[in-house]
Amino acid sequence: MMVVMTTRATEAQIAAVRAKFTASGVDAQVIEGELATAVGAVGDPNGIRKSDLESMPGVERIVPFSTPYKLASNELTHHEPSSFEVRDRLIGGNETFCLIAGPCTVESREQALSVAKTVETAGASMLRGGAFKPRTSPFAFQGLGEEGLEILVEAREQTGLPIVTELLDAQHADLVAQHADVIQIGTRNMQNYVLLELAGQLGKPVLLKRGFSSTLEELLMAADYILKEGNERVILCERGIRSFETATRFTLDLGAVPWLKQRSHLPVIVDPSHATGDASPVEPLACAAAAAGADGAMVEVHYEPKAALCDAPQAQNAKDFPAFVSRVAVHAALAGRRIAQP
Ligand code: PEP
Ligand code: MN
């Protein structure tokens, strides 16, 4: 169970709740969130009555979890969705659709700035672009590293778009946090629990991609690793899973959208580019994600897709992007949402 303390709870009141658990042999963890502090019981607090805790000073309410994931559960938020702003762009809640677009990888200043301008003019909410890339082959282009981050910052200065970029390894944490507006954890690192904790400590929103062989429960428990560090700004991303089907690169699990929305308060976005590995189904799937109630979509865009150094087959042509945005916006409107703008 989780004891949510009031915003005015004192250190002594928090310690008293913790001591109550410890005295009955149950380990308890204090989780200091950005909005509230909670005390979570690790183990089964059999000897403790809910009413005893409710009457303790500083206690707001008790949340008895029925799920293996805790902080990501919407039992904590009375089933209300969370929302937050990234440089004036709202993500989460029920009214906006956050469209994150940009190249798979920052390849050059010219490429990144050109794509950034196109997607901004067309109405994207944020710019994506990898600087440190998780490549299947060690001989493939690994990204421009710090130079790539600097180019992204220049793109933000020119367009005003917040930037989303991947944190691949702990050694780059400070560097990525200094530049990024949203820190992405890639599919291959969803179960890198030490990296998740570190991402939770960097003070920036985290976009957590579902591991391509991970269940949705595992995704929510991975989110708990970030949330327990006090970082409440986590975005979940469905990006396709491995299945027997090989027609598309991965299999987009659109069922993840309603399943997660029903059980978690966190914003849920969909990445049809990595799911399909092919540009042609990206638009219908982004539209489907919007109509299914997703909080956003992330898509890869290039001004010369065939020449892309990474994920070329799935890159949308930048010249087609304005029409893509219009059609996605129509589907988002079906779910009562508009594209997130400043
Ligand atoms: C990416 O978005 O750049 C990426 C590498 O995605 P994923 O981790 O989902 O493969
Ligand atoms: Mn990619």
Notes on the structure:
By secondary structure, the protein is of the alpha/beta class. It is built from eleven helices and 16 strands. The chain has helices spanning 11-23, 50-54, 109-122, 146-159, 173-179, 193-200, 216-227, 256-263, 272-276, 282-291, 321-334, and strands spanning 2-5, 27-32, 37-42, 59-63, 83-86, 89-92, 96-102, 126-128, 163-166, 182-185, 206-209, 234-238, 268-270, 296-302, 316-317, 338-339. Strands 7-8-9-10-11-12-13-14 form an eight-stranded parallel β-barrel, surrounded by eight helices. It has a four-stranded antiparallel sheet with strand order 2-3-1-4. Helix 3 runs parallel beside helix 4, helix 6 crosses helix 7 and helix 10 (282-291) runs parallel beside helix 11. The relative contact order is 0.14. The mean pLDDT is 95. The protein binds phosphoenolpyruvate (PEP) and manganese (II) ion. Phosphoenolpyruvate binds next to loops.
